Amino acid sequence: MEGIDKNTFKRIFHNHWDAFKQFRPRFDNPDYNETVNKMLGCGDPDQMGFVQYRCCYCGEIRRIAFTCKFCFCLSCAKVYTDRWADFIARRLLPGITYRHVVLTMPEFLRIWFFRDPTLLSSLMRAGNACLKDILDTCASVKLDIGNITVLQTAGRSGHYNPHLHILMTAGGLDPLEQWKSISYIPYEMMHKKWQYHLLKMLRENVSDPAIEKDIDRAWRDYPKGFVAFLQDGDVPPGGKGLAQYLAKYVVSPPISVRRIESYDGKVISFWYRDHKTGQIKHETLPALQFIGRMAQHILPKGFQRIRYYGLHGNVRYQKMREYLAEIIPPQRPDDPRGYRVLGPKPFAQLFFESFGKDPLLCPKCGDNMMLELIYHPKYGTIKEFSLFEELPDEPEPVGTTASRRTMDRAERLVQVSLLFFLSNIIHWLPALNSSQSY
Ligand SMILES: [Zn+2]
Ligand SMILES: [Zn+2]
After folding, report:
1. Which of 30, 47, 133, 367 could cross-link to 57 by cystine, CB 3.0-4.6 Å?
2. Which ligand has an atom closest to residue 429 CA?
3. pTM for the whole structure
4. Nearest ligand to the C-alpha atom of residue 365
């Protein structure tokens, strides 16, 4: 029996992914392979690339490998979740109250989304349309509302259970551009409206005539509508608290390390809390079945799991934020940091927060370390930084001027792509632990 740590999940995939793809050829395509391979190479400097620091005093080298940053990777999940919460905290509109809405579907409809994952986009749009419809009805006028919608496909036990978590403004701008708050939403209406919007979407988007039978059944078996509710009680009032609360619910991977109880190379045991009874349940699955349970949550490449609608739509967001700040005095939030617009944290700070050490201090002598080079498996060595004063140029041998000029130009080109590269990757938090620093 092996010890369980954050690499256990990786080990399961490492040992059984190839066999799994033979067993289930549906999963042998780039969407799944890329996510799994990146997770398997996560933190490996040769596969993922690295940043190299050198101590100016004693010459000690430290390499810090890049990580995959997928929420599917249990090593990266915490960083992914924290960064997401940070981002959302900055995106919430000051002074606005939000509600956390959950929209679900009956079990027999889920198969349609499993068969055709492109339907998941339509599901997210239907959720947005439904909430707008609900608030319009409550307000008796058309409201301009804002939603941050997150798609979650995993139920508690890792089964396929696509549902939406939405942070919805509890109100909106009326046609006179004034804010109208909505504090009461009748549940019966919510259930029925969600049923209507979801079934309408399926009818419009599924071409297989068999959908009609399921739609009829959904109307017949659910006369009170579908399960849709406002998460109440412990929802923090706003800002960072709210974002972190939501992050825990929705951007977490299908299983967390602490829920894996054992893995003996063949079968995996884990626990989950049953959402109906609240009881802890234990489940043991053979590796191939466990991988299937997990891999079904890998979304098509490029799929946006988090989408912004209405006031939160990417194009309008900044303008609406400024307008709302004019008409609504922001109430002082519980956590005043929640509404402050913060830039992304510098790499050294993120690193320090995660690992409790300063990446820029030499582990041997404690002197400052300097960035020496960045290596990426696809682009090679991106930049070598000169750490020591340059020696005066040797007189150039005749005939090398042209190639020298080419070199200069190449150097400039490298710098352009370096800027691009740095702006894109330097905020990826590289992984460092004893096995990954050299
Ligand atoms: Zn990772
Ligand atoms: Zn040193």
Report:
1. 367
2. 1
3. 0.76
4. 2
Question: What pLDDT sits at residue 265?
Answer: 92
Q: What is the mean pLDDT of each run of 10 residues along the chain (438 residues)?
A: 80 95 92 89 86 88 83 80 80 82 94 93 97 95 93 88 90 92 89 97 96 96 90 60 72 81 93 85 94 90 89 88 78 38 53 64 85 84 61 43 38 34 40 32
Closest Cα to residue 122, out of 109, 135, 107, 134?
109
Ligand nearest to the CA of 41: 1
- Residue 300 CA to residue 31 CA, distance in Å, equals 5
How far is it, in rounded angstroms, from Cα 89 to Cα 132?
22
Q: How far is the CA of 430 from the centre of ligand 1 (A)?
A: 10
Per-position DSSP letters for 24-57, written without gaps between them: -GGG-SHHHHHHHHHHHHTT-HHHH-EEEEEETT
Distance 408 CA to ligand 2 centre (A): 32
The β-bridge partners of 53 are 62, 371
Ligand 1 centroid to residue 208 C-alpha, Å: 38
Enter the tokens of residue 108: 């027999």
pLDDT at res. 350: 62
Ligand 2 center–CA 111 separation, angstroms: 58
Domain extent listing, the chain: 45-75+345-389+398-438, 95-254+297-332
What's the CA-to-centroid distance between 364 and ligand 2, angstroms?
A: 5
Q: What is the DSSP string of 356-367?
A: SS-TTB-TTT--
For residue 299 the two structure tokens come to 């979304």
Cα of 149 to ligand 1 centre, how many Å? 24
CA 361 / ligand 2 centre spacing (Å): 8
Listed in order, strand segments (DSSP E) in 338-415 are 369-376, 380-384
Whole-number Å distance, alpha carbon 57 to ligand 2 midpoint, is 5
CB neighbour list of residue 8: distance below 8 Å, 6 or more residues apart: 2, 257, 260, 263
> What are the backbone dihedrals phi and psi of residue 35, each rounded to the nearest 5 degrees, phi first?
-60, -45
Q: Which ligand is nearest to the CA of 368?
A: 2
